[in-house]
Amino acid sequence: MAKQNVAEQFVDILARAGVRRLYGVVGDSLNPVVDAVRRNSAVEWIQVRHEETAAFAAGAEAQITGRLAACAGSCGPGNLHLINGLYDAHRSMAPVLALASHIPSAEIGLGYFQETHPDQLFRECSHYSELISSPRQMPRLLHTAIQNAVGRGGVSVVSLPGDIASEPAPEKSAETALVTTRPTVRPGDAEIDALVRMIDEAGKVTLFCGSGTAGAHAEVMEFAGKIKSPVGHALRGKEFIQYDNEFDVGMSGLLGYGAAYEATHECDLLILLGTDFPYNAFLPDDVRIAQVDVRPEHLGRRSRLDLAVWGDVRETLRCLIPRVRPKDDRRFLDRMLKKHADALEGVVKAYTRKVEKHVPLHPEYVASVLDELADEDAVFTVDTGMCNVWAARYLTPNGRRRVIGSFSHGSMANALPMAIGAQFTDRRRQVVSMSGDGGFTMLMGDFLTLVQYDLPVKVVLFDNSSLSMVELEMLVAGLPSYGTHNKNPDFAAVARACGAFGVRVEKPKQLAGALKDAFRHKGPALVDVVTDPNALSIPPKISAEMVTGFALSASKIVLDGGVGRMLQMARSNLRNVPRP
What we know:
The protein has 24 helices and 19 strands.
């Protein structure tokens, strides 16, 4: 049997760790690894048109499957293109292994063509970033990188010179057992005891939930029912906590709606469950706060805490539920549920009024129809900007749908690349990219990746010919909009020229039929919807401190925005409110 080289051993270890695809763009320093993938049936090379797409796709795959995913870039400029997508994956706690191939090892440090220092450049967006400078470091260094990515949740980067990749691998290298799943973490008894006391002493408790509640829906609902607590959520917690939730009071933050803000400010005790909610201006400073998080570095970095609990949300609640005293007083919960429904009632008309005649189309209406027609287990990938608003307010979670976006890193151009990674995990599952025209055109070349692999991704393009979120930021600052207008082509015609299905929608009556046709099409499809650039959104509570860094405005041109089917959900919850 021929002796393995380092590249072949590298690919074999990835396969043992559960990696099924390696996203990237080929290049000379990467050629030994690409050739090793060609000869390994367990791993597929996915050729994208831009390395940033490779990193976003790997991050999305990791978020959908919960398994390690991988991407690669050639030396210098090639692997530098990975960095934005890796930042996003890292901040989303997606386990991703990135291979940054390197210049010839003998030339490192001598200003060689395309020389960078990837082992240093990627340190800020990874748990682990190291250089393989000798074959003798394999496979231990790669094992360590994998353990960091999976065990700590995030990115690991391995830099590998092309000449080292071609050298013989060490003989008799041990096949070390690999960590492929993360454990649950139970808090200490002292923290559980303290939290039980705080809950029992509080008259009004509110739960505010983030992505750390994934897999804990049943426990959150049981806990909320026992202590009669309103349940609000951050954007990343929406898909895990809003469905089948009779305690729902909506979402707080910059894209918020409903009564979540009031519920978090009018309680005696606020419990933050699995959320690294970034906007401390929306958090209270005059109520007691306890935070539960599996990552200790998240505890207390957004708000002052009265109690920090290091633990998995599900395990923590399993400890709390049998120990806390049941609360009988529903008055706070019922008041927040009514306030939530009333708040939604006040804005729902924004997308129902004259929508059949409004041209350009209300984007709220587009999102609402999309929500109704999409599959019950669809995966939505969402561009940063106004698409985040429409997804937050109109996509109805049900425990089977997924919504993925650059919610922590806030990058443009993420939706299409993420859709690629999501679709590769299951070609039969409906994947919808909610793209803005600004984000779509930034990485539009990878629409060709859909065509090349015949991926049935459906791109719904909110085409308002502007960077509308930036326009709103300028409005907030009292500046005239400048440099935000996009001169766009007919994107449906572009899609057809690429060999995909494409249809352009300019009138509301065309929308439902166009979406149905795209969904029925077996391959990639793009629906170019011309939407109103003046349809902007504001959060439910605004203060001067909230303005910096985001679009907030009370200008007359700003619409409150609708809330889709959430009003129906809120009204349904009110049936459970006892009548005097």
